[in-house]
Amino acid sequence: MMQFFVPSSASATMNNTLTLAEIRRRGMAAIEEGLQRGPVHLIKRNKLAAVVLSEDEYRRLTHGKVAARGQMSAVQWLLAQSTTGQRSKAQIDADLKAERDW
Q: Is the pLDDT score of 3 beyond 60?
């Protein structure tokens, strides 16, 4: 199940959001699920950080023009984000097991 989080600085009408933690946990499946409802707003440290668009929407907005060289792709941007978690792999595995066993 996708979790939705809208920071206080976000518009009340924006409700298709994902945190980077959710993306790290669920990966591309979380983004694909969100894209079924339209653009997905990414939240980093309780602030709007980026928007993921479907390929069709991106092409519509850019009129088919490709982004200039040197700009970061969405995947590059996601991979460049720092990881600030302090949990060990064992703790993450235990937390995921507990979530799945409820």
A: no
Q: Of 59, 4, 58, nearest to 30 (Cα)?
A: 4
Strand partners, 44: 47
The pTM of the full predicted model, rounded to 2 decimals, is: 0.51
Domain segments of the chain as ranges: 17-101
Q: Is the distance from CB of 86 to CB of 48 less than 8 angstroms?
A: no
Q: What gap in Å lies between CA 23 and CA 30, rounded to an integer?
A: 6
CATH architecture of the domain formed by 17-101:
3-Layer(aba) Sandwich (3.40)
pLDDT at 100: 84
Q: Which two tokens stand for residue 86?
A: 């302090």
